[in-house]
Amino acid sequence: MTSTNQPIARSRTLLAVLLAGSALALGACGNKANDTTAGQKVDSAVAKTESSAKSAESSVKQGAAEAKDAVKDAAATVGNKVDDASITAKVSAGLAKDPDLSAIKIDVDTKGGTVTLAGPAPTAAAKARAGDIAKGVEGVGSVNNKLEVKM
Q: By percentage, how much of the chain surpasses pLDDT 90?
């Protein structure tokens, strides 16, 4: 039995003992009609307790499943942010290696694997190379090349 179920089990046991004691006390009165009613009440109370325990257990399981899903979603979000930052760094490093492109002047932004390049490019060929450099980085899904050719 898990630690989550221990309070429920203790509650059931305590309730059963209290109800059984009540039934015995009523039975000691000697009234046969009350004996049957007391037994039925005990059975009913035990059934209600078991039903409540099952409902509580179901709620705990549902809450645990929801918490597990929330943790997975949070981990995925953090993973995406780390991946996007890594992609941005790799694209910027690639741009810095090109003698015609100024990695300092080009803004690289990554969201969900989509890289956006913004800033100046000296020629149309350099702009196209910047897009190719970004596309060549692992994890890049698409490139939005907003570089402006400055002549």
A: 28
